[in-house]
Amino acid sequence: MKVKKQYNTLEERELLIQEHSDLFLIEEHNIFEGNFLVFADEYPELPDPEPTLSEQVTELNQTVGNLILESANDKSTIASLENTVGSLLLEIAALKGGAE
Question: What was the pLDDT predicted at 98?
Answer without folding.
Answer: 58
